[in-house]
Fold these 4 entries.
Entry 1:
Amino acid sequence: MDDFLDKLPQMDLMRSEKMTLVQLIIPVESAHRCVTYLGELGLLQFRDLNADKSPFQRTFANQVKRCGEMSRKLRFFKDQIDKAGLRCSPRHELEPDIELGDLERQLADHEHEVLEMNSNSEKLRQTYNELLEFKIVLQKANGFLASSNAHATGDETELHEGTYSNNGFIETSSLLEQEMRPEPLNQSGLRFISGIINKDKLLRFERMLFRATRGNMLFNQTPSDEEIMDPSTSEMVEKIVFVVFFSGEQARTKILKICEAFSANCYPVPEDTTKQRQLTREVLSRLSDLEATLHAGTRHRNDALNAVGYRLTKWITTVRREKAVYDTLNMLNFDVTKKCLVGEGWCPTFAKTQIHEVLQRATFDSNSQVGVIFHVMQAVESPPTYFRTNKLTNAFQEIIDAYGVARYQEANPAVYSVVTYPFLFAVMFGDWGHGLCLLLGALYLLARERKLSSQKLGSFMEMLFGGRYVIFLMALFSIYCGLIYNEFFSVPFHIFGGSAYKCRDTTCSDAYTVGLVKYRDPYPFGVDPSWRGSRSELPYLNSLKMKMSILLGIAQMNLGLILSFFNARFFGSSLDIRYQFIPQMIFLNSLFGYLSLLIIIKWCTGSQADLYHVMIYMFLSPTEELGENELFWGQRPLQILLLLMAFIAVPWMLFPKPFALRKIHMERFQGRTYGVLGTSEVDLDVEPDSARGGHQEEEFNFSEIFVHQLIHSIEFVLGSVSNTASYLRLWALSLAHSELSTVFYEKVLLLAWGYENILIRLIGLVVFAFATAFILLMMETLSAFLHALRLHWVEFMGKFFHGDGYKFKPFSFALISDDDE
């Protein structure tokens, strides 16, 4: 048997790749190029030999800091380009690789230039906004002042408000500059302050003015006709022009402080109409000049950003790679005396030749006089787990890894999940109409695979695209199971010939509940369409799907136990084979394997035996005659034998293994044998097939081993019952899916189609389509997906899978993501 198993061809995904711990001794002058070439190859996972040091204590901390600063500048450029709304596609012509120092200088120059232009633009925009507000205030306040002059006395004086404290007045200055300086104020009479404020602050501003002046003021307001850009947020803000009439110097002081607190800008407005017109012309002239200056500055800034944007993608890639290289160099030990770097890492055994060739090429390209020393080390810790997957198997491997990464060289459940996972999904989802809808969605994702893979997708769409081959297989198996169930949106079809049943006489021509008799061979494939609508439809389908669920469950659990045998044999643990695998197989198949045998015999013979009665009285009255429930000769003595075997298997699982481990431990330390204890129960953290655990002398705790075995045995015994019952979810979800489809078809579509009104028919069709799409194709798909996930993670993988390994994460430029910055 062992010779036969050894001659079987090895499966690629059955066990992870063999890994080798290697050591690199790299001269300083060629270290950067060596690590760069290894990053391009992507087959070496470096170990951190400086884990006890902080990031600032490492050799290349300054280089990492420089790369981080350059990344910040590149993100700044990207934000500026996005903010400006530019679309800079990278140039495709070949550009020479730029040195890190030159790139750093270029980025600093570009950043200084852009920051200076942003500062100038912000100042110009602020001045432009002030002049624009002044223009709006001049236009809107004129109406208020005209109304005030019509009712005011001749003693009213004009109040000039500004921000300048210099009272000197130059006759040759422009009228705008004159108006921005306050004139000596008249200490009596009615005065006013005009300005502009954000609309959202207006109510609080007016309330505060009323309280501060105790109502001794007149507040006029009007909305501005145009929105004004806020320089800090670049958003358009709606503002309100106001004019406050008051009397007295004390009121003036209070109003100015309130305006300052609410960020209201005050502008002087002359009462003289001639001065107003002259001031407006000066403001419009300066606005025109500033607008031209702003447009010229914006064009110059966009040209500078475009020049950066053409090379931004290449620069980002260069900086990311350099930072990754220096982060990796920081994981190496720096030997000052020998002027070399010492590194360790894991690589697949098949990649040793490739890595050696890459190191030789790096030594030659760097003109180093000393080559890189590359040699294999003896491993002390468990190697990482690495599976070589393709586009089809990668999604299934990710599903398994979501539960736990396989232990090094442990049997990989993903090999079998490629078939069993979509099949169990289809057992619950079986409807070939719904399967065709899933297939169309999967084919769309596959047809646009090249385009979608190059785009940045949302989280939901990225998940769907990553599982496109899983959806494709689920759709195919759903069509297959739907043909077996003979359901197309819950409607049966005579696809594979006529029904095996017909009416006994003419009285049942319009009924499907009574009078059907079998008159020829059974329907060639799947469920006979005549069962649809019959009185015994539900009992028949329930019986079929429930028994089928048990058969599938027992088959998959047996597969899990068989894989545990191959695991134990691969790791050389004979104790696990003798005291776990054999009694577990006996216990599971003595009870539930026997139940599966009875189901198959009942199907083949057409017996009317009650399997519930057989299994219950197998325990309660094993010696009692079976009577009409006997399915074959010798069934009663076989049941007694299977029951005794099941009872014997429980102590077989519990007692021998802890005592055998204790005996082996005693022999090891008494000098009688020096063999390695090859079992995973002694040291769960050490790989069972290596001698690495022998260096760590740990105290053998017999009570702990015994309790662990007791828990494991009880868990398996109880789990055999609960796991078998858990597979009945296949029956339950399949029944729920079928009944929901029937309800939507009969109570929505057929009911609406019974009316002659075209509008009612259209409404019924729309409701049926939405119910099918959102409930049956989305919610039911998710439900069946999760239940199939549970059956694989718990019922199947729990029989053999430890899942306490860690992934192989090589240093590779292709794996660098945006988050690694």
Entry 2:
Amino acid sequence: MPYALWMAWALGAVITLSKEGSFGQASLTCDSTGVCVGRLNSLNSIPSGLTAAVKSLDLSNNEITYIGNSDLQRCVNLQALVLKSNKINTIDEDSFFSLGKLKRLDLSYNDLSNLSSSWFRPLSSLESLNLLGNPYKTLGETSLFSHLTNLRTLKVGSTDSFTKIQRKDFAGLTFIQELEIDASALQSYEPKSLRSIQNISNLTLHMRQPILLLEIFVDLLSSVEYLELRDTDLCNFHFSELSISETNPLIKKFTFRKVKMTDKSLFQVIKLMSYASGLLDLEFDDCTLDGVGDFSTSDKDKVIDPGKVETLTIRRLHIPRFYLFYDLSTVYSLTERVKRITVENSKVFLVPCLLSQHLKSLEYLDLSENLMVEEYLKNSACEHAWPSLQTLILRQNYLTSLEKTAETLLTLKNLTDLDISKNSFHSMPETCQWPEKMKYLNLSNTRIHNLTYCIPQTLEILDVSNNNLNSFSVTLPQLKELYISKNKLKTLPDASFLPTLLLLNISTNTINTFSKEQLDSFHKLKTLEAGGNTFICSCEFLSFTQEQQALAKVFINWSENYLCDSPSHVRGQRVQDVHLSVSECHRAVLVSGMCCALFLLILLTGVLCHRFHGLWYMKMMWAWLQAKRKPRKAPRRDICYDAFVSYSEQDSHWVENLMVQELENFNPPFKLCLHKRDFIPGKWIIDNIIDSIEKSHKAVFVLSENFVKSEWCKYELDFSHFRLFDENNDAAILVLLEPIEKRAIPQRFCKLRKIMNTKTYLEWPTDEALQEGFWINLRAAIKS
């Protein structure tokens, strides 16, 4: 019994492990290239069953706590391993032993309190390593990265726990493209710790306080090209002199991101920049200046000329006491050599005229997303302001008058490029005065609904995208590029307005089609972007676009953005994939053919009707329909005649002198209906025939050659023919007055011809001895 229990327990354990293994494998999604993703699956361990086919493994945002020696043992071809945002606190020494091809390792934001160099020793191919956000205090007891000769991206440190940088930490590293150090809680920095890295392209340094900033800065002067300082409070930053032995500082760009400063500390920053004599680019992003513009400090005279700085970028600058800000005169002299200035989204409403006049070297000025209006712009662009300015960007400000804006900028004699997009101009005056050298104008997103000759005639590039334009009728003889997407144009602009056009972007309008002739009229056009329109994929349009192979070089995004809007059965399909049927593409020919076929059909029908008495059939159909409206068989009291006699006028002598005498003078007499005597005068003859036959017990047809040729006899016989076979009775009596051949009876009386072949008819004998018998038989037939 215990043995059986033990076996049951073992079997249950095997089943449980099997289920866990299959669950782990199911948590991964792998494609054919070996990229496996298992993010956000609440995994608490690395899935089992990983093989050499896995080249990229992303297990971020799970709950993994441990990496064992065998977890990744078979992943010998793994090139990327992402384990960020887990709870990893333990990694076995040989966990990465088989990952010799690994190029990217991300262990950021885990619980690693100690780092071991044995983890990274086998990773000879590693190019990117991220260790940010772990609770370690130092970078291990020995150098972690000395064996990583291919390492180009390194991110270390944490917000709260990383407190010490030692000289050994970066030993063995000579060139790093991107280095990020979160030293927010740094308390100790061993001099020359970063100097061991000979070249750093980009260094991002997180520091809460600038206590150790100067020591680090001195070590970086000769090795860093781009230095970024983040999340630092420089309000109390101050220093006197730096002891620098470097004669050729390498720093070219310095960025302050989310940094706090005051009026006084700003000058300290400028003084610090002066030690980077090769600095060309200075950037302040999302910074706070807690001051009022009072830069007249005791350190003013000690400020060193920033030297070669050519580009100044300020984005999202926050000045809490902006309403008290009053002066910039003390920094005027520092701006004379600057060539490019960007002040974006910083609530700027005025650039003082004196400052504008001091910006003698300024070529590029970006004041996007500010509070500029025409009145203050006029003060900023005063006489002799920005004398070298070529590019001015006033995107998303509060300009409302295009005429006033143009007039204000007349002082800028060298201005060539102007971006005033995302302002609210709405309308455009008929004429405007612009600087004479204007080549580029951006009026996109300005809500204008028409274009006039306010547009400078000197333009080479015009952007009027995303407006309310429904036409383009302005001649621009020098224009080379026109961007007019997201408007309401229904056709391409007239090429005569744009004789030198090279590029046209007219995407996302309401254009239905364009022709080869229209494109050919743009003699110099090399690039056309017309995707996103509502194309009617007619046969002509498809033939033009699909057969012209050279158009693929002219059209931008030809394969994806050119879609059919109609016909409905091809809506949403790519123009180059649509093929219409022959009936859709040759409709005129098809209609002509159908008309010809219809004409031939009518002609053939007419011939057949004539040949096979079609007219007669129609007449009979009408007579039959008329008869159908009446009772199928007249009641007995409505029968007025014993027989209706149908005969030819040429046979009237026989009927009136012989037949009538024999029948009406017989005892008892027969009452016959004769058309001469009994038809009602003034009544339609067809109705007379129909009524007479219907009111007669029998219909006697006196057949002869004359009868066959008589038109009215035909009507009488026709109606009787219908009645005979419609009611299935024997109302018709055929009297053959003279021998006639059956083929003389019209073919249309097929049933009558059949009766003559199957039933007896009375034949008038020429022998007088036999005539008495004829009358006896006729009287008997009428009575029957």
Entry 3:
Amino acid sequence: MAVTDFIAGKVAAELLEMLDEICRKSFLCKPTAAQLVTSIQDLLPTIQEIKYTGVAIPPPRQRQIDALSETLVRGRDLAHEILNSGRWNFLKNVQLARKMEKLEKKVSRFVNGPLQVHVLADVHHLRYDSEKKFDRIENSIRQLEQRLGAAKSGVGGEEGGWLEEAVRRAEEEERCGGDLVNLGMEVAKRKVKEMVIGKDDFRVVGICGIGGSGKTTLAREICRDDDVRSYFNNRVLFLTVSQSPNVEQLRSKIWGMIIGNDSVGSSDTIPPLTLQYDFGIVVKTLVILDDVWSLPVLDQLILKTPGCKTLVVSRFKFSPSVINCTYELELLREDEAVSLFCHAAFGQNAIPSGSNEKLIKQVVDECKGLPLALKVIGASLRDKPEMFWTSAKSILTRSQPICESHEIQLLERMRLSIDCLPEKVRECFLDLGSFLEDKKIPLDVLINIWVELHDIEDKEAFAILVELADKNLLTPVKDARYGDIYSSYYDISVYQHDVLRDLAIYLSNRENVNQRRRLLMPRRETGIPKEWERNVDKPFNAQIVSVYTGEMREMDWFSMEFPKAEVLILNFSSSEYFLPPFIDNMPKLKTLVLINYSTSNAVLHNLSVVTNLSNLRSLWFEKISVPQLPETTLPLKNLRKISLVLCKINTSLDDSVVDLPYLFPCLSELTMDHCDDLTELPPSICKMNKLKSLSVTNCHSLRELPTDLGKLSSLQILRTYACPCLRRLPPGICSLVLLQYLDISQCVNLASLPEGIGGLKCLEKIDMRECPQIRNLPRSAASLRSLHRVICDEEVSWLWREVEKSIPDLCIQVAEACFNLDWLAE
């Protein structure tokens, strides 16, 4: 942050005081001074925000702040001169009034001009620059199951210890009910009650969520609720289905509730519950099916009689065709978590007076809103001295298990959710352990890894993603593009609950370190784990290797052999990074991912190890200063995909530095996203004849596209969205005869579409929302016979209505104004 940021804020405040005084004393300058007061008052909060956030401003914005600072300094001097000018000097006062008018116009132009133009760009930049989690609910749990252990201090007896006893006590409380269930469930209970008693057209409703999130607790509270029992005349039946249910016994209990005969047994003749019955009168009945694991079992237990409603509680989210409406259980907010924890630890809903509030909140924070953890850890610390609490907090912070037996018990219990998955889906779930906790997982990276490792197509990989999401084993980001056929996976992310990540790592680490299929570092370390170092004398058979460190120098690496490695993920936080020499010992490497989590772009060293990767198929660089490849680099003939995200391009792609078509002869996908220093694409890109997808997005300095872009004869997808400095598309774009999708959305200064756009005979979809400068369409647009869908703003939609007369199947979708900043909530 430059010194001028502080000067601008200070001078603006001083100038405001002087202008107020001028409004009272100077007749000639009063109207202008009043208008200046309004402009500066609008501007001052922004200056103060820049001043106190401590965030570095890009050079173009900094120059604007510098210019504003100089203007305000001159304004302060001018105001001082006005205040010191005598009223009798009329000529001088007129001259000063004119200067004041010029100053006011200059400030107003800044407020209404550059400050407004960059708002959209700033929002996009913030989204990708932020290293904090996107979702306050699903991403914040850290190594939870591994922390539930018990340092052997205080352990009593051979069958367990103080923590296992606490677990049994917490589980008993959940089975028997009590005041504990009322804590942290108000919102969830209200919403589920609305589904149960407020929606008569919903026959089957559901509660879903990960293990330990409080599903059963919530369902039991619904079962005991006075309003619910009154609505159903006390005809409420709670049944636990489990993974290995006795279906006939469950059916007999349900049938007995329906006919009002509790003595009905499994040996009695029970008609199919799935048939529609009409008893002549409507008898309201609620059946709660807890811990449902499979759809075939559920199908046998759902009632079809009038007035009967079924509440299904499961870790999995079943299809809307089976369950009309499902409530996805959220984790607890901070105040709810404190209340639940204190109830377990102290028998009251608040932190007791005189206790160590800071320590208690630190322990609560380590539970990260998961009800099971709050109850278990809270109960385990009941009546323990403060020194014991401090020790437990330190253990949790270090992510060490407090009790090995209980850790295994919990993880083995959650393992049931994974063992029932198809083998390929199960393997894809275990791959998720390769990514960091509390960090977004780029969908493009994940899909690409699955495609390369499991020999599947993109569509099958996405289907597996949806299946894992439906089973609450990962969480897709809330994005309108999610699932669209032309979705840009590189700027869409998924998340995984840390408990589930722990489970994936636990299941992956059961073999000897040299035999593991996935060699993973669960958390950041200063160097290579000691366990790896002790076994470097033998080859590692891992297919996936995931490393997370700080700065690494040449001497920090060890000689390691990875004859089977196909995926290498290098996570680090540093401004400089020496690539591991063992990459030379990865002959089968197909996917290389480098993600830098520091605040500045990283400079890479030892780049020569990449030049010999003859089998490399995809490369992902994030927050890297893209280096110049050595002159000895041989063509990477198998490389299909390059993604540069938040990178500094510098001159690394200039034609004078690198011959792109020669080095990457088979490249089919090129992505450059949030590369702020990219002003233009190198002309040699137009010679990459195998390129099918080109995405240059959120590049705020990009001024133009190459003139010969039309030579990309294989190009099917072109994205240039959110490039505010892009003013025109080259006419050559109309020669892209295979182009199917064009995305120019949020190019706020793009003036028009090319006149010959009708030459895009295969174009199926255009996204041009938030392009306010486009006020007419080329006549040739009526020749876009393959065009099926256009997304645009209301102001442009009427232009396409005319084109629609020539293209009957055209769907014109008016984009909704979206000012959702939920992603900033954290």
Entry 4:
Amino acid sequence: MELLRSHLAKVRIPEPTNRIHKEECCISFDTPRSEGGLYVDMCSFLGFGKDFVRWNFERTGNSVYLHIQQERKPVPEDRPLKKPTLLAIGVEGGFDNQEPEYETTYNIVILPDYISLPFPSVELPEKVRLAADGIILAEGAAKKEQLAAWTAEKKKVSEYALTLQQLDNGVLVHSSGWKCSKCDKTENLWMNLTDGTILCGRKNWDGTGGNNHAIEHYEQTKYPLAVKLGTITADLESADVFSYPEDDSVEDPLLAQHLSHFGIDFSSLQKTEMTTAERELDQNVNYDWNRIQENDKDAELLFGPGYTGLVNLGNSCYMASIMQVMFSADSFVSRYYENRSLREAFDTSPADPTVDLNTQLTKLGHGLLSGKYSVPPQVGNEDGKVQNDKQEGIPPRMFKTVIAAKHPEFSSMRQQDALEFLLHLFDQVERANAGTPDLDPCRSFKFVIEERLQCPSGKVAYNRRSDYILSLNIPLHDATNKEQLEAFHKKKAELGLEGKEISNDEIVRPRVPLGACLSNFSAPEEVQDFYSTALNAKTTAIKTAGLTTFPDYLVLHMRKFVMEAGWVPKKLDVYIDVPDTIDITHMRSKGLQPGEELLPEAAPNEEENDASMELVASEDIVGQLASMGFNYLHCQKAAIKTSNAGVEEAMNWLLSHMEDPDIDDPISSGSSKAPPVDEGSVQTLVSFGFHEDLARKALKASGGNIEKATDWIFSNPEASSSSMDTDSGNAVASSSAAQTDEAAAVPDGSGRYKLMGMVSHIGTSTHCGHYVAHVVKDGRWVIFNDSKVAASVDPPKDMAYLYFFQRY
């Protein structure tokens, strides 16, 4: 006890603002349930597994720890799983996670000799008792940063519901026998709550659903709310109300009043139709859900190094699927596992290792690849028998916290787009390795795209930009099963006349070869409102694109989400025929060719032409981006910065510049001159090691603020070699020196690749549903479905959202 008293100066009583890491080791995935339990430093409140607590003692001299040990209680025989009625985990009606129970014991341990004192005990010094009680009673850091359940967001109250003006037109709606007022549809019917008109819903790609009459009615009248007939019962909260201007299912607190206006007595109605959410759940649990997750396959569960699952933290499958693929790439494996030990990561980390990205990536890499946490759990039942089950997996809580820091979406518990997360990951890892770019594992994914623009004068301009993702449109007109599709649509129409729907097993989906998608990327495309410095006027240019470098790993993004009429986002239900190997050598762009003449640069003294040269954002591009939920001003900037080249180019720019310090600044008018750049500020940035031209560009973009300019440079790594004059919006030719520098900064090699991984998506939107990864390991396909890791029997190579190819 005297030894303990001698260390009281380094014992702290936790305050409410302190982050208490009592659920998990900060350098490994050891927990109180691991062998040896968890040691919580009673000074820093960091947690350490038994193999790592001595490292902390040697580094800090902190000797007193609260040792937490949890032992699993016996569990009863597996109870039958219930069919889910809610897209949720761990809540009533959701997927049953069957959490076991544990018995917890505490001790005070003094290092370096691991002297253990029981807790609670009245013999302990009061400060130690208060500190230990504070740690035990405090909410852990992990629980502060996440929700326990994965569930769909509660429907919001429509802003149009409380002020809805209903027409006094004498319309009365009967309790049955409904039919679309513009066609013969008798299912999927929606009643507009303003005028009582009954119309059919949206048409799906395969002809199911309606004929779009309800949304067309909204476009003509702007009457905002509609309720789906057949979903109205005495439980009005379950009724499916849709707001067209808000583009979402909403809650109408005055629904009873709105229904009674048209003579509808909701208390006597029976449910005959699925709500939108129920239909999505039904589709997920059936076709896509089962196919992508291989639920109907007798898969062999896998364990050992490289076969570790990731626990779903609540809508974190987008992150889990991406990280499983990343740690199957040699560059990430080398950087954060083979060439970096946990001890090295800890010794070079800041005082709090939980906030350092490189440390947490090293922790994650060792957790996934060492095999330490990939073992079959030994679960004792009531009869004392031992049963094996799937592995528990590791929870990437600390990694999620640090990678999502200051990002409003990834730090939330909402589902996210796996593509957006991958781009964010690349950006953050590149920043974390800015001081040692040769160690940056993202370089193996980086490549240079070259766009060739030719105006009617015959002269050309070349633009280059670096990217990590090759985003591909899906040309449905190149489907290889057109005859089967025509027969399917014919049969579907015939059944529709009989009031029947075609079964899921009979649905025929378009099949498009991956080669057609790649060819579409390089195909000539018209660019409207292109300002030609040769003609001194706006004109239509022809754009083609290719790659000047081929990365070690090529990521292909299939653009399955397109815009319907009325700017309504829609997911293409389509198969992509993807071969195991591809050769994109023909896509290499070689720059300026003999006989080509570059477009002249705009003369700097032609001030009188500034107004005519000012580029205006294309409303078509801005409208499509804004309909996806992006800020309208940001969409305008994206269109201008890419010279209205297209939606794809604008979206890529937008995703790469979301965190620019000047992203919210108003767009400057062409008639107002930019303030001169302070030469002192330029020289300050030059002294930091930046090129003078880059320093001037950054200061212009940041209003002369040095701090913002520095951040702008790191946020725009492509800016140093960009060939786009972003001040005027005119495409000009890059200097050969700049092009050479950009190409030299990324790897290059042959254009032959083999498929090594893919991320698939289940659901109607990238921001809902579920993500699953498939990766080739040891010569066979493996499915990573959160914590489940198994041999893939039938990998859904034709259904993925992201494809990952490795050069061979």
